Give the backbone structure.
Amino acid sequence: MKISKILLPFDNSVHSVNATKYALELAKLCKAHVTIVYCYEEWDSNLSEIPEALINDIRANKKRDAELTLKKAEGIFENQGVEYSLETVAGEPGHVLAHRSKSKMYDLIIMGSHGHSDIAGLFLGSVTHKVLNTIYCPVMVVP
């Protein structure tokens, strides 16, 4: 099996950083491209009393925070001789990652066993659990 494209969800948790280091080393060995993605839930307000400008500011802040989080992953990959790209995606991480895997654009997903989710699974993080149950390509889970 040739690994040329790796998807790496990143949220700056300890397990996510560990997964990032594994992805970097594997990408070096396989000469693979790594897409580092941070999923954030876009704030959706159903309250008509909140001004649209404030809603737009909140959304912009969430996107900016996501981009800052990805800068930490970029710091691990910089100057390592590995091709990578950074993406922020609005949406629930489990759904976004499952959709990405269906595209068959990736040979492997490498992710941490737990993340920063407030709701954690008993043995695996909730996002990791969801991905493992809906995924369409191999997944490496890193503690």
Residues 5-120 form a domain with the Rossmann fold fold (CATH 3.40.50.620). The CA atoms of residues 34 and 84 lie 5 Å apart.
